From TrEMBL:
This is 5-beta-cholestane-3-alpha,7-alpha-diol 12-alpha-hydroxylase-like. GO terms for cellular component: endoplasmic reticulum membrane. SUPFAM superfamilies: Cytochrome P450. The keyword Membrane applies. It is a single-pass membrane protein. Its cofactor is heme. Belongs to the cytochrome P450 family. The keyword Transmembrane applies. Keywords: Endoplasmic reticulum, Heme, Iron, Lipid biosynthesis, Lipid metabolism, Membrane, Metal-binding, Signal, Transmembrane, Transmembrane helix. PANTHER family: 7-ALPHA-HYDROXYCHOLEST-4-EN-3-ONE 12-ALPHA-HYDROXYLASE, PTHR24306. Heme binds at C434. The lineage of its organism: Eukaryota, Metazoa, Chordata, Craniata, Vertebrata. Pfam families: p450 (PF00067).
Length: 493
């Protein structure tokens, strides 16, 4: 028992500094959960750029030196693997049990989120986003008047609905009787689903830490069942325009003999993975643009230039805007703005399980012994995104931070005179880097593009401060604001 509590754990020769905290087993769990950034910075000041801390029964070695990240991100799964951790997490949060060769199935399907697959998805997303935006304003009596909404609510709702419909498909005209009825059903159904998704997503961090109250546990159970039902194999197979990504995931799992109820659980994993970050990211992006008039002006000019160069015009009753993947490759200002937003607001914790006793070499040559069964982690938000040298004035939003003087994307950033390979890491890195990053970036760009060409938008309170961030979300990806911000929008034509 005492062994399990970590009481006898001692630092062995060559191992990184060990800090177990004062509470057996829990160690530093509470400090870590309350404020990860503050906790890790405190440990870094105390121990330097590599240290091992005990957190809830696990010993995690944090490496804070960005030059040493490659030795964690690019090693083989036989040495460091995220799968055992993800396996535990998805079982707890989604009731899904991994296949033996889970990562092979993941890899086989990723192609649909990139290359030619991305061309198709970008087009579907474009149609869904525009239909949703114009439909929601179309239901308003006087469309020329300002409409008021919470920016987080508006952005997350729109991006969720469009993302969900683009990946999981539309209701069929056959089942609904007409195209209009099928569209109406999609809009109503995806908005209802968004409201349930938001509830589940807000329970997510405490669900992962196994810290839900009984009432919240019951609510999480209800929500899980609802999603398993909506995303069942049969229901998805009855839809139109289901993405190849989803179809292939279902087919490959079917071939492996996975039960249909387990496939539905996996569909919920994919829904959460594809939608939990894009909503808050779209909120921050529009928020920063509205707070920074110089950025707003630069992006708007670029957007209008693309429209003009592609001979498109926004007019009442006119055709939908067509914005292809290739057109989205010619927007360096918008790219930089998205990258800057993600630098400021993404705080993923990248943790791997150490699969064998091994030596670990830091970039400066120092060597440490790591133990099988421990974990190793990096926290790019502290080590890279907020590093004063890599990104001067790191807390400031500078829309052109990622632009070179000649107006193209800047990719050279330095620390101690040396070029930093991983200068932002919103998508993680190495073998498990987010496969949806191209789709997500396009989606964010499409959303902003459309908001700027169709609507006048502004904050209700132009002096609005940056809202505080929800500490509970730090470590999971894009952070959330603790409160919504009011904004208003009206059709430009
Ligand atoms: C702003 C939006 C997004 C952010 C910030 C984001 C971020 C991340 C991060 C940090 C990881 C973990 C990487 C690692 O541990 O190395 C990840 C994994 C993943 N993401 Fe994303 N993501 C976003 C959108 C999406 C979208 C739109 C999709 C799919 C359509 C997606 C699909 C996935 C999948 C399937 C994984 C698991 C990869 C694996 O385990 O091999 N993500 N994402």
């Amino acid at each position: 028992g005492l062994h399990l509590l970590g009481v006898f754990r001692r630092r062995r020769p060559k191992e990184p500094p060990l800090d177990k905290g004062h509470i057996p087993w829990l160690g530093h769990a509470l400090d870590f959960k309350n404020n990860k950034v503050e906790f890790l910075q405190k440990m870094q000041r105390k121990h330097g750029d590599i240290f091992t801390v005990q957190i809830g029964g696990n010993c995690i070695t944090f490496v804070m030196d960005p030059f040493s990240f490659g030795s964690i991100l690019n090693v083989t799964r036989s040495k460091m693997d995220m799968n055992p951790i993800v396996k535990q997490l998805v079982a707890r949060a989604f009731g899904y049990h991994h296949l033996e060769n889970e990562h092979k199935v993941m890899e086989a399907t990723n192609k649909h989120l990139m290359g030619d697959g991305l061309v198709v998805l970008t087009q579907t997303m474009m149609k869904n986003l525009q239909n949703l935006m114009l439909h929601s304003i179309g239901t308003v009596k006087n469309q020329k008047e300002w409409q008021y909404d919470g920016l987080l609510h508006y952005s997350s709702n729109t991006v969720f609905q469009a993302g969900y419909l683009s990946l999981f498909g539309n209701e069929t005209v056959k089942s609904m009787g007409s195209k209009e009825k099928a569209e109406e059903f999609d809009w109503v159904h995806s908005e209802e689903l968004f409201n349930e998704f938001r509830k589940y997503d807000s329970l997510f961090p405490n669900l992962v830490y196994a810290m839900l109250s009984l009432k919240d546990k019951l609510e999480a159970e209800r929500l899980k069942r609802l999603f398993w039902n909506v995303l069942s194999f049969k229901k998805i197979m009855q839809k139109d325009n289901v993405s190849r990504w989803i179809i292939d995931h279902l087919q490959l799992r079917q071939e492996q003999g996975m039960a249909e109820y387990m496939q539905a659980r996996f569909m919920f994993v994919l829904l959460w993975g594809s939608q939990s970050n894009t909503g808050p990211a779209s909120f921050w992006l529009l928020f920063f643009l509205m707070k920074h008039p110089e950025a707003f002006k630069a992006v708007k000019e670029e957007v209008e230039k693309v429209l003009k160069e592609t001979n498109q015009e926004v007019k009442p009753g006119g055709p939908l805007i067509n914005l292809t993947r290739d057109m989205l490759m010619k927007t360096p200002i918008l790219d930089s703005t998205v990258e800057e937003t993600l630098r400021l607001m993404s705080a993923p914790g990248l943790i791997r399980a150490i699969m064998q006793d091994m030596d670990f070499k830091m970039a400066d040559g120092r060597e440490y012994a790591l133990r099988k069964g421990d974990r190793i982690g990096i926290f790019p938000y502290i080590s890279v995104h907020m590093d004063l040298e890599i990104h001067p004035e790191p807390h400031q939003f500078k829309y052109d931070r990622f632009l070179s003087p000649d107006g193209i994307r800047r990719t050279s950033f330095y620390k101690n005179g040396k070029k930093v390979k991983y200068f932002t890491m919103p998508w993680g890195g190495g073998i498990s880097m987010c496969p949806g990053r191209f789709l997500a970036t396009n989606e964010l760009k499409q959303f902003v593009f459309l908001m700027l060409v169709y609507f006048d938008i502004e904050l209700v309170n132009a002096e609005e401060e940056n809202p505080p961030i929800d500490q509970n979300r730090v470590g999971f990806g894009i952070v959330h604001p603790t409160r919504d911000i009011q904004f208003r929008y009206k059709l430009r034509f």
